[in-house]
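writing this on my phone so excuse typos. first protein, seq and then structure
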Amino acid sequence: MGKKKVSVGNWAYIWGGYTDKPVPLTEVVKRLQEYKFDGIEFGVFAPHLSFEDAKDRQKRLAVKKLLDDHGLAVSAVAADFGAVPPMLANPADYLDVVMQHAEICVDLGTNKMRTDTIVPPTEVPGGMSYETCFWRTAEVFHRAAEVAGHYGVKFVWEFEPGFLFNKPSEVARMAYAVDHPNFGVLFDSCHAHMCAV
């Protein structure tokens, strides 16, 4: 068994207690190097690298160089699907965002793309039925896993207490419903505990 590696999500320095004053990416990677982290789970979010800026390959490669210069690998890309919730968006629009993030993954040197369901857990949006939302999400995730696979990128869903479909039974059901070998469930132990209790 290989050495265990530790990474941290860059959004921890963008949101929450840092919302009013995000820590610049250059400072984040410097500190992670000093603390001997192996890598970073890179969220494609402003101000570190917005989705719009990430469409420019030179900006992506500049981020990759910054990370390389500090000895940090990218464990996964947390994709920005905020404008295309899987149960609401046109599937073609969602898949376009998947393709763009797959290119970001390739340029940042990772083979994992993280997603979630975007929608709060307390509401089924737009007057849709629960089952319609569930199966639309499963179908879009299945197609996204297929598309990401063409780039050599695994499509992983992180269930969270703050998003729709987070109960243990829903997580297991979604994994079986998506039914694609390139789809996985990202298991965050804190989220799992919160969802289970």
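second protein below, same order as before
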Amino acid sequence: MSESVLDAVVILLVGSVIAVAVFRHLGFPSILAYLLVGLITGPHGLVWIPHTEETHFLAEFGVVFLLFSIGLEFSIARLAAMKREVLGLGGAQVVVTTLLAGSIAWLLGLRFEAAFVIGGVLAMSSTAIVVKQLKDQQELGLPHGRLSIAILLFQDIAVVPFLIVIPVMAESPDASLVWELVWALSKGLSVIALMLTVGWWLLRPLFGIIVTLKSSELFTLTALLFAMASAWLSHYVGLSFAMGAFLAGMILGETEFRQQIEADIRPFRDVLLGLFFVTIGMMLDIHLLPVTVHWVLVLVVAIIVIKMAVIAGLSLLFGSPVGVGIRTGVVLAQGGEFGLALLMVAFADGLLEKDIVQIVLAAVIITMALTPILISHSGGHAKAP
């Protein structure tokens, strides 16, 4: 069979259409369908599609559009209104989970850099699956739903510093690490300042002019240009494509054109993000499962138990009722798409070995698959305070 990119895209589209249709009919998230397609068609399944640089490049675009769309939904005003829950509870959850999971990984023999990445990966939960499930159950507005969204919002923000730190840790594993981190963060802040300045003085009037021309094609092209140019600028200064895309989305999200931009880029985001999850599925080597299954199952239990305990405990410390804290812990007791993205970045940069990646990848996917069941059976409807 030809290994051209066109062949791969056709196979992936056919498999994705069938798998998504079946999973949606059964009530399961589309993300799991894409993961299954990658598992079946990839180099560790039927070997229809090799995991080449071309497919990896397409997947990177999926991460870029995911961060761009998250940035569009991120509102500084919304953050200010929920600062105690987002910055306080959400920040505490990410820090505590990262330190706890990272410390356990370090005690099990991983290098500091690898343990830190594992901690960050496991601190993330699935925004896509959780929001969909809570929306389907009409629980987004309930206390545990609001707390879950606040924590997820901080996790989305926390991805940005992780994306800055991981490449630096890969390039500077010696005593100069602290200096390199400070330099990278300084560059990141400089890029943020530059983009905010450009966004404030240029983007709003530019899009205002484009709207008067009544060309939806030009509007979409301009939005895509800004997203890709921001990703390129971020990468050019030594940071990640994804961070630049997030900043672009955040800047455009503060304009009155946010909803139109979000609607215009949704088709690109959904297709490319699907390819990202397909490539994640392609990375999962099922032939190693018989050897590592005990570690995978232990990690699955650890993720669910530790995240439930940490989130429920912190929710109580921040004044939430016991029932709300427990339900919030159950809702977020899984790995997520951002964790998978961080895992892929760390593996590509050489911070993690293949065996470790396989164990974490399998465990995160299993917890994501269990999430709809856990949320739907987490104890009836929460009562509003």
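The first helix runs from residue 5 to 26. thats all i got for now
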